[in-house]
Amino acid sequence: MKPYPSLPQALRSVPLRTIAPVTTLALLCFALWLWFDGERLAAAISGVLAVLALLASVWIHQRQPRLELGGVLLCVATVSGCLLSAWQLGSDALPWTYLVLMSNFFIVRNQIATPLNLMLVAGLLLMPGLLLGQPAQLQSLIVMVLVFGFGYHFSHRLQGDRTRLEMLASLDALTGVPNRRALEKSLQAHIDGMRAERFRQGLVVIDIDNFKEVNDRYGHGAGDIALSDLAAILRFELRENDQVFRFGGEEFVILVDTGSREALARFSERLRKMVYQSLRGPGGRITISAGAAMYAGEQRWQDWFARADAALYAAKAQGRNNVVVAE
Questions:
Q1: Which residues in the chain come in under a pLDDT of 50?
Q2: Which PANTHER family is this protein grouped with (predicted)?
Q3: How many angstroms separate the CA atoms of 228 and 222, rounded?
Q4: CA torsion, points 253, 254, 260, 262, in degrees to nearest 10?
Q5: pTM
Q6: In this predicted model, what pLDDT tens digit does every residue of 297-327 receive, in sequence order?
Q7: Which of 85, 23, 81, 29 minimizes the C-alpha distance to 54?
Q8: DSSP string over 139-171
Q9: CA 6, CA 60: separation in Å to the nearest integer?
């Protein structure tokens, strides 16, 4: 199972994948033009910036889950390229500046784009006679400030929308608990953290026993109520550092902050008993089976999950309403 990229990253990758190669080509062409025009130093600088943009493009295409660095490299290349072109071409290069001021806000977060854009404007202001002096130059400065402001405003709104979309995309609509997308992201984060800090974590996979019979006999509405009630019970029973997710269908997954296999077994058994005592459907008592596994140094979260899932199948094979903890 391949982990999903987060939604903001997925949305940001669309303009990045287009802008990065275009920027590389533009800087390379500018370097060639400067070279044949006799501006060898400026041509060399533009060539270096083209390489930087190329590295950003490669990073963006190969490091989908980590777009931030590629975006920063690209913004540095575009800002530096604008300053170089303004130094060489004067006011004729200003239209490119407007484009860069706007696009930077959509390539990286506002917290990064804002100082980079301020550096660009400050650099242009320091160039003699470029933005200060004549009325036409002052108009260019006013347009630049307006583009900066509108870019910041719309990017801020877009980031808010991205955050809300990420939240909606990470929640199960029926039960209100995080869904499989959020689970995969959280599992990978836990794997990375445990390898670095040697935390002890447990994974519990829970499945409602005979859930298909509930749906077939009493309808999907009854099944939905059972799922929602189970999610509520699990959330109520979890401790502060534990997390519950709906994996899909009638399966739930819990990340448990625990110190030993024995503690994980006690935790899982307590959940089973609580569900046995509390969860009811139209046909009476509803039970669960659970498989659990302590983190054992797996490099991939899928391997850790597979151990807990195998324990769940063992619990089912032992007659359901049971808990099995992997060795």
A1: 1-8, 10-11, 65
A2: DIGUANYLATE CYCLASE DGCM-RELATED, REGULATORY COMPONENTS OF SENSORY TRANSDUCTION SYSTEM
A3: 10
A4: -70
A5: 0.60
A6: 888 889 999 999 999 999 999 988 999 999 8
A7: 23
A8: HHHHHHHHHHHHHHHHHHHHHHHHHHHHHHHTB
A9: 14
Report the CATH number of the 180-325 domain: 3.30.70.270
Cα–Cα distance, 71 to 76 (Å, whole number): 9
Residue 207, classed as helix, strand or coil, is: strand
From CA 313, how far away is CA 293, in angstroms rounded? 13
Q: Rg of the Cα trace of the chain?
A: 28
Residue 250 is a catalytic residue: yes
pLDDT at 306: 94
* Residue 100 Cα to chain centre, angstroms: 25
Give the pLDDT confidence of 268-305 residue by residue, as tens digits. Answer: 999 999 999 999 988 889 999 999 999 888 888 899 99
Point out the catalytic residue in the list 166, 250, 262, 327.
250
Domain positions in the chain are: 9-169, 180-325
Q: Reduced to 3 states, what is the DSSP secondary structure of residue 291?
A: strand
CB atoms within 10 A of CB 33: 14
**244 token code pair:** 């519950």
Q: Please tell me what DSSP assigns to residue 257.
A: E
**Dihedral angle of Cα 90, 93, 98, 103, to the nearest 10 degrees:** -130
Q: How far apart are CA 154 and CA 101, in angstroms?
A: 13
